[in-house]
Amino acid sequence: MPLGVGFIVPPWNFPLAICVGLTASAVVTGNTTLVKPASLTPVIAYKFVELAEEAGLPSGVINFIPGDSSVMGDFITGHPLTRFISFTGSKDVGLHINELAGKKVKGQKWIKRVNAEMGGKDGIVVDETADLDAAAESIVSSAFSFQGQKCSAGSRAIIVESIYDKLVEKVVQLTEKLSIGNGEEDYSVGPVIDEKAYNSILKYIEIGKGEATLLLGGNPGSNEGFYINPTILGDADSNSRIMQEEIFGPVLAIAKAKDWEEAIEMYNNTDYGLTGGFFSSDNNRIEQAIERMYCGNLYVNRNCTGALVGIHPFGGFNLSGTDSKAGSYEYIKLFSQGKLYTQKI
Ligand code: NAP
Ligand code: MG
């Protein structure tokens, strides 16, 4: 059976895909929704709602409520008639919603269900048996596509000592070739989303310069707008802030491990657990990596981004969220409740 009224809260990145995924999964299971788009991307969400209505969805099933989350977010999460919250966004906002939803208020008859998919500090591990050209390409595209503004962005690379210098050189060379400019004109790296993100990313780059060795970038781009040159910081300590905190921008931190096992330990040394990558040609190590790398979505010998709906159910461990595995059949069960009846005849 359906649950009831759901509060749908998507992030600004993937503003159509995530908004549609969160809303449609609630609707196909018979629920009604309040859809609050991110403040930066209300129009694309509006277009989706308009299409849903045009397609014949009865009014009242999707209620579009753009607005300032600091004014209405807590009101709706805390409302006694809100039955569930489907959130995708940052760790701090997800934890706040989860905490607030956990408090029963007057007139509330249920435990609110929260599905919260949050941030990541994803990383790619490379051992000495790996195809280094393939690893370099994957590290660069995982770190810098969409300017690193993806929850799955490979913002860390952890490389075994014996191939560290060689692979880092390849990563830097490939990154130097990325063209920077307006995304509409087919450049590889565009601007970041807004001034707030721009300032926050540049602040992290300054922190990184103090914690690690600047190998590339480290400054704003020369174009007018919120451009930041793809930045690579090497010899990073796995406990440093640039290896621990989600930056959500074009910043790659690289760390050196003595061997593949230490590299996996360093990969796991994070509060997050969304995506990971493992590059090796040793099947025993690959099996071990599948067992030991603690994340919801692990990719072997390929990029750590680009999950395909229906093929790679998506969701993270630890503070990356409730591991709801979006894009799968199991996902939609989260928006329904099972009723059993038995009849004696
Ligand atoms: P965000 O700042 O956490 O915002 C996400 C959504 O929450 C926005 O719609 C925001 O509205 C809303 N919000 C903020 N405070 C709220 C409150 N008190 N009550 C209810 N809603 C509230 O995240 P973002 O900057 O949009 O997106 C980037 C983050 O999302 C990154 O951390 C990224 O890793 C994560 N992400 C995760 C996944 C995944 O599947 N795990 C996928 C994509 C993105 P306003 O815009 O009005 O503040
Ligand atoms: Mg934000």
TrEMBL record:
Enzymatic reactions: L-glutamate 5-semialdehyde + NAD(+) + H2O = L-glutamate + NADH + 2 H(+)
ATP-binding as a keyword of this entry, yes or no, is no
EC annotation from Swiss-Prot or TrEMBL: 1.2.1.88
Highest taxon in the source lineage: Bacteria
Gene3D superfamilies, per the entry: Aldehyde Dehydrogenase, Chain A, domain 1, Aldehyde Dehydrogenase, Chain A, domain 2
Which PANTHER family does its entry note? DELTA-1-PYRROLINE-5-CARBOXYLATE DEHYDROGENASE 1, ISOFORM A-RELATED, DELTA-1-PYRROLINE-5-CARBOXYLATE DEHYDROGENASE 2, ISOFORM A-RELATED
Q: In which pathway does it act?
A: Amino-acid degradation; L-proline degradation into L-glutamate; L-glutamate from L-proline: step 2/2
Cellular component, GO annotation? cytoplasmic side of plasma membrane
Among its keywords, does the record have Acetylation? no
Q: What is this protein called?
A: L-glutamate gamma-semialdehyde dehydrogenase
**Molecular function terms, GO-annotated:** L-glutamate gamma-semialdehyde dehydrogenase activity; proline dehydrogenase activity
- What InterPro entries is this protein classified in? Ald_DH/histidinol_DH (IPR016161), Ald_DH_C (IPR016163), Ald_DH_CS_CYS (IPR016160), Ald_DH_N (IPR016162), Aldehyde_DH_dom (IPR015590), Proline_metab_enzyme (IPR050485)
Listed A to Z, the keywords are: NAD, Oxidoreductase
Give the EC class as a word: oxidoreductase
Domain Aldehyde dehydrogenase residue range list: 2-336
Which GO annotations describe the biological process of this protein? L-proline catabolic process to L-glutamate
